[in-house]
Amino acid sequence: WALLLLAAALALEGTAAARCPTPCVCDNLRAHVLCLNGNLMAIPSTIPQLTKKLDLQGNSFTVIPVGAFLATPYLSHLDLQRCKVERLEEGAFRGLGRLVYLNLASNSIALLYQESLDGLSSLQQLILEGNRIEEIQPGAFGHLGSLTVLNLRANALVYLPDMVFQGLQVLRWLQLSHNALHVLGSEAFTALPALRRLSLDHNELQALPSEALARLDGATRLDLGHNPITYVAEEALAMASLKHLSLDHAALQDVAPNAFARSPQLRTLDLRENQLRGLPPLAGARGLARVSLAGNPLLCSCLLRPFHDWLARARVQVEGACAAPPALRGRPLDSLRPPEMRCGHPRLPPSPATPPEQPRVAGSGQCPQGCACSPDFRHGSCENKDLRKIPWGFPRDTRLLDLRRNAFGTVPPGAFPGLKELVSLHLQSCSIGALRPGALRGLESLVYLYLTDNRLSTLAATAFEGAPQLAYLDLDRNAFARLPTDAFQLLPNLISLHLQHNAIRELAEGDLAGAGGLRWLYLAGNAIRRIAPTALAPAKMLEKLHLEGNHLAEVPTASLWGLPALSELKLSRNPIKRMGDSAFLPVASSLQHLYLDNMGLEQISPGAFTGLGPKIRSLYLESNKMSHIPDMSNFTGLDILNLRDVPFHCDCQLLPLRRWIDKLNLRIGATCGSPAEVRGLKVKLSTTFQTCPGWGRGKAGGTSPNKTKAASKPSKKKRSGKSPARGFKKSRA
């Protein structure tokens, strides 16, 4: 065995050395390959076959095609963070039966199909955080029988259908925080017997999803903070093993006495930062040990005595202080004596009405000829059947209807009769040139509408009549020459609008009228030359604005006023040659992610980034033509900074950047383009700064040219994260 292992190691070392692709770094001993921030457009085909860990962070793949990793079947860890991935083709990861860790965070994936993750039978951790996933088709995780952690944090989910997580038999932690969830199917969490923690905080839930949560017999921790929940009703939570419940920073005004009676193991209850003026004795929660009430406007009158007495009898620790009456303001609850809690103060407001229960599924029906209907998933499909007319007769309880790749041409009025429970409708690639008035009539539960790859050039507002819940509208790759004016007046719940790769030439005043709740606007790949100063004003809640690949000649600064929530702005691949002062000042207080790459940018004025600073987490400036950039020392919160392929002139004017780079623990890729003697050298290794006034001050350059020269020699000491570890061999290509 020892000889076999030695032979395998030698073979691996030889293979890795011979086939390490450009611009990657290969660790021969540990079977690791790193291809970081290399602007790769496709998965390298020459990765050594025996590679176990492959790190491809910071590249530009856009699509992961079928069988992309068939040449590396021994992979156990695959990192594809920040690779601009928009689509996972069905079968993209086939052949990776040994993979245990897959990181797809911070990409642009919008939809998970049923076979997107096929072939990952050993996968234990799947990280999809920070994408824009709007919908998960039932069965998408059906092949992940070994998964223990699923991270879907910070996506764009509004709805979870029944059985969506089927197949995840050993999943222990499901992270759904920071989405926009407001509807959960009653069977959404069915078939998760091993789940121990569920994170649903920072969503749009207006009531406890009692039916869905009742399926989680084994869960011990539930995070529901930062949801607009106003009331917890009688026996609202039936989770037999629950020990820790967080309902902090919600909108709670009242909690029923027996709200937690069916969760007998509950030990800690976090109710911080709500609107509670008091609580009844929570007698049903017999095992409760601690309640947190800090940040509530507690009225410590005689009306609070029953709760106070119960705390003492049940020996429950409490955190919180009185807000009124004035004589007791600021007093901790556990310091009060009953005589101090006097009557004569205003009565507590009555409990708000119990929110209505989520509607139950009812009804069934036949399936149109040639189509497939799944009663378990409530899913109907007539994909790629060469249909000329939209079929009728789907079961009335259908939630997802897939009609992709047909030839309908037109969607007539009343095209979907009886489908009041339909949530997701797929009409991609159907040669649709017209959506007639009333086409969606009766689809009162519709949340997702996909019309990608059709021939639409205009839309009337009446086309959306009868679909008031529509939140996601995908019109990518159609024939729009301008935004469909007035089309959003009947869509009060619209959150996400996709109009990428159309032929839109400008954004005019009034184009977004009625889109007051819009959060994400995707306009990449159009021909936009002008944005009117008030064009974006109706979308006051806008968080993401993608304008990459258009024809803008300058930053649309005037159009950014009135967008106080904008956190992500993409201007990549626009012909912006010069960036003037205060270019991003209107959104300086909220902006976190800024994309300015591949623009041919030649000059950035010293005041271009005025107002920006610690809030900025990622800044992309790669593949531009400027030779200098302004002082960026105020950008102290950066996680990502990309300055690759920028021809910096390494003279004394660039010294502030040189010093600043020394303080960063980031790979930024900055190289000198001139003068000739240092062309191609990394900025932080250039010796041209040694003659600059003040070179010897601070940490950047040492105390003398001699010391700097010595420091530039290879060191025998290990460098922390600044160079390849021992055993790595750089490609000589």
Automatic annotation (TrEMBL):
Residues 1-17 form the signal peptide. It is found in: Secreted, Extracellular space, Extracellular matrix. Keywords: Disulfide bond, Extracellular matrix, Glycoprotein, Leucine-rich repeat, Repeat, Secreted, Signal. Residues 296-344, 647-693 form the LRRCT domain. Residues 19-53, 366-400 form the LRRNT domain. Residues 714-733 have a biased composition (Basic residues). PANTHER family: ANTIGEN BSP, PUTATIVE-RELATED, INSULIN LIKE GROWTH FACTOR BINDING PROTEIN ACID LABILE SUBUNIT. Belongs to the small leucine-rich proteoglycan (SLRP) family. SLRP class IV subfamily. This is Chondroadherin-like protein. It comes from Spheniscus mendiculus. The gene is Chadl.
